[in-house]
Specification:
- With 295 residues, this protein is mainly alpha-helical.
- Helices cover 71% and strands 6% of the residues.
- It contains eight helices and six strands; from the N terminus they run αααββββββααααα.
- The strands form three sheets. A two-stranded antiparallel sheet has the order 1-2. Strands 3-4 form a two-stranded antiparallel ribbon. Strands 5-6 form a two-stranded antiparallel sheet.
- Strand 3 and strand 4 form a beta hairpin.
């Protein structure tokens, strides 16, 4: 093959271009901290990177769902704690006012307190998280409980189960149904109403009859609180699992995607020396005016 001046110049220019391109690649790697920035850098590695990022994105979504679920269950547990306290106070009133030491005057005072307890209970039953009623099932935009003028309460929600996704093909219910809490074994509102009426009517027998029913009401609330606690515990365990799993995936992503900066800096020093040598050789082969243009 005949070696012409043009062939020599083209070869030198092509090699200089490759060395410049390699130098730029190493500089970009150092500045970005990434070994892989596009598929052509490492097709197999890029495939792994995309899989790792997809997994991390899924974990982040699970964690957002878990955070929402924990907020919902936390306020549910807090509300049920307040319900429990009101029922305990109602029981204390019933026990004290069912005895012979109580009289019409003390029962009238207690009846007023019971009226307030009833209204507080109704308010708790209609607790909202943001714009959603937590005890209404799927009908979260509707107040689940209401009463008439005779203090007869009714449930306006449904049995809907609100679930969140916490893993692949895994979901958990985060709501406690209001009907189960307030109307399952006994009607909490009926018991409070009847106790209020017994106090107003100065009827020791009617007052005494509510004590056992209040125990039943406390039991059904306690059962739901236990279920809420179990759900909170499950979410906490799941959150910890995903935190550890995400850490492992992030490390694997870093090992695949990130640049070894120590090696990259060493390569940069070497490549800069190669580039300077290429420039020196090119200066001897290509006319200075062309070299000035290439610089």
């Amino acid at each position: 093959m005949r070696v012409t001046n043009k062939l020599m110049a083209d070869t030198v220019a092509n090699n200089l271009f490759k060395n410049t391109e390699h130098l730029l690649k190493i500089q970009n790697m150092i500045s970005s901290g990434k070994r892989i920035s596009k598929p052509s850098d490492d097709p197999i590695g890029m495939g792994k990177v995309l899989d790792y990022r997809k997994t991390i994105s899924s974990i982040d979504q699970y964690n957002r769902n878990i955070a929402r679920g924990r907020s919902w269950l936390d306020i549910t547990d807090s509300t049920l704690g307040s319900v429990d306290n009101l029922l305990m106070r109602a029981k204390e009133i019933a026990v004290s006012q069912a005895t012979g030491t109580a009289n019409k005057q003390t029962r009238e005072i207690a009846a007023k307190e019971m009226k307030n307890i009833y209204e507080q209970m109704l308010q708790l039953a209609n607790t909202k998280l943001g714009s959603s009623y937590i005890f209404a099932g799927h009908k979260t935009d509707t107040a689940p409980f209401s009463r008439d003028d005779d203090y007869n309460a009714s449930y306006n929600g449904d049995k809907g189960d609100i679930r969140i996704i916490v893993g692949e093909d895994t979901s958990i219910s985060i709501n406690a149904n209001g009907e189960d809490i307030f109307f399952s074994k006994v009607s909490v509102f009926d018991v409070l109403r009847d106790l209020k009426d017994g106090l107003q009517n100065n009827d020791p027998s009617a007052i005494s009859n509510q004590i056992e029913l209040l125990n039943d009401a406390l039991g059904q609330v306690l059962k739901v609180r236990a279920e809420v606690g179990a759900k909170l515990n499950r979410l906490e365990i799941t959150e910890t699992y995903w935190a550890n799993f995400k850490l492992n995936i992030t490390e694997m992503l870093s090992q695949t995607e990130d640049a070894d900066l120590t090696k990259a800096i060493t390569d940069l020093t070497t490549q800069e020396a190669v580039y300077q040598t290429s420039l020196a050789i090119s200066a001897r082969v290509i006319q200075p005016s062309l070299m000035n243009f290439l610089r």
